[in-house]
Amino acid sequence: QELLEKSKLLPREIRWHFVGALQTNKCKPLAEQIPNLWCVESIDAAKKADQLQKGREAMCQREPDYSDRPLRVFVQVNTSGEEEKSGVEPREAAALCRHIREQCPRLKLQGLMTIGAIARSRGVAEGKENEDFVTLREVRDQVAKELGVSEEELELSMGMSEDFESAIRCGSNEVRIGSTIFGERPAKKDAQIKDDIDQGKG
User: Fold this and answer.
1) C-alpha–C-alpha distance, residues 99 and 89, integer Å
2) Which of 54, 126, 137, 178 is the most exposed place for a label (fewest CB within 10 A)?
3) Using CA atoms, how far apart are residues 19 and 39, in angstroms rounded to an integer?
């Protein structure tokens, strides 16, 4: 909902990345209503990919200029085994990746992502590698082999503000360090749109 609102206020030149938990019933409107949605980083089920595909197809029918711009997606893998974490089991990643490549022509499989256990990052000795990041790299290599593509074709999105250096050492192509750059996000009740503040609505 927040991204839908912001995308209407800000320029189309922005390439939006959606990071975070995504409910299946939110996938179609997300892909359908935001033409400049560039990437969705948290696909963990074929149903979600199918709904993104439907939404993107509908958007391209409405706005043909975007027909040659596939929506990039990362498959989220639960490398830590934590029940509260989203993501497919490592052994299930290849099947979901294959589904996206073969059944979702409006999507482009960009790679795999994970949110590793912060405790493991904090506990990693200097010069050692976080085992969650190692696991994702190994899963990526296996998926590439099963799909018959080069490892370089599948990016790794792993590492956040507290552990991005370790992730980079393990081969991450993309790190998510918003809080380091922008600071902590305000509570949702405190977040306001600038136009509303200027008009005295806040």
Assistant:
1) 15
2) 126
3) 9
